[in-house]
Amino acid sequence: MVFENTSEVIRAENILKKTGRSVSVMGPPPEIRTGCDLVIEFPLIEELELKRELSKNNIFPIKTVPVGSGLLEPVSLFQTKDFGEFLMVRAANMKITISKNDRKIVNISGGGCPDVPYLAEIMTGKILEKAPNPRDLGHTLCGYALQLAYEEILKK
Amino acid sequence: MIGIVGTVPDDNFPLVHGKIEISGNEIKIKNQSVSINRCTPALMAAAINASKTIKCPEIYGFLVGDTGKGYGSRKLYEFLTKNLSSFDLDVLTFHYLQPDVDWHNKVLFAVEDMKKRPVLIADAGFMYAAKMSGQALSYDFFTPDAGELAFLADELAPHPFYTRGFILSTDEDLPSLVKRAYKHENAAKNLIVKGKTDYIVKNGEIIKTVNSPSFDAMEAIGGTGDTITGVLTSLVGAGFDFVKAGEMSCICNRIIAELTCPTPATQVAELIEKIPDALVRILDGKF
Predict the structure, then answer these.
(1) pTM here?
(2) Domain positions in chain B
């Protein structure tokens, strides 16, 4: 399923995962890439149900494209760096660093899309567990990568 | 004149262009002020602070608010497409913009229509779009970090988020990533690869490396790559040879760290204010 923008993909993924659907966020096939995109991969047979679920939430994919293979998988490796008093987790091109004693977010770095500085401004200085979630405020692949780093550092 | 193009993380920030000045921890452009702690204003502030030590042309900014929805970036792309040809620029640096290949191509066409072609530097989102467009070699400089170099090296990845696992970088294999990026024509003529060791690359060949002094905390601090690109912009504008400019920007970033003694909680504004002193040291040969 292809959406108007990455924010809609992220919202759609949230909704579908909450209802227990087996969907994955992937990179689009080359013929429909524009530069900063995500698509949702799902079993074709579930199309009607998934679209119904999304429409209840006012989300409408702009098209559905059948693909046999060729979707790119997001980076799934994390790197953790321990600075002693501070801990940093990196996912793809995004890094989040917290102070270990009070779990305050002290820096967010990396990325190239404009929501990164926005998320950095909102999240830096907040306690990790109480900080706004990048998934809710981000709009781009960099924002999505920050969400992965954020989820990983929550486990630490 | 030096031009710097990018965004501010505020949807209400209008599209403005004009001479940039620095005042405390803010830059001023037209009648707008914005913190230098993030994003393109950090790069701009680094360029301005470099110009306090070296003589370079006036620094002119093109800025718009964008929090990731891309509306501001598209407005700025459209403005550049229509108006770039009326500017006389020696250097043009592109920074945090929503990656969009179609708009990137239109802007590059507009650059080609300028009376004098400026030195082109691309970083952040605009570098992603430049690579994906297949026109990386139209640029004089890309300034990736090690992770972004892996993205440039992966001929299939449209964004660093999709860099294939077998290409992901370690410090040891950076030279092979450089080779791979040039093999597929996904690198600019010159690269500064920012990392634990900085690499200055010209036409696929690693010409210089910079690795001391080294401060691990710099990796965690948002904006420490922007400072390199900002200083590079001013040095190139001042007429330094590209490799020399690349090497000096990397050394400068290490000296500002030495002067600040950063921790992973340090904010980039503290580092930016040390740039004039760091460049004085470099020019005096004290590094």
Answers:
(1) 0.90
(2) 2-283
- Measure the CA–CA gap between B152 and B173, rounded to whole angstroms: 14
B209 has a pLDDT exceeding 70: yes
Looking at the complex, does the CB of residue B213 fall below 8 Å from at least one CB of chain A? no
CB-based contact (8 Å) between A136 and chain B?
Answer: no
Alpha-carbon torsion (B175, B166, B172, B141), positive or negative: positive
How far CA B83 is from CA of B2, B73, B79, B86, B104, in Å, comes to 16, 15, 6, 6, 15
At B146-172, the pLDDT tens digits run 889 999 999 988 888 888 776 665 666
Contact B145 A76 (CB under 8 A): no
The domain B2-283 is classified under which CATH number: 3.90.550.10, 3.40.50.720, 3.40.1190.20, 3.30.1780.10? 3.40.1190.20
Domain A1-73 has CATH 1.10.3470: no
Tell which of B66, B76, B105, B159 to mutate to test the A interface (max A CBs under 10 Å). Answer: B159
pLDDT at A28 over 90: no
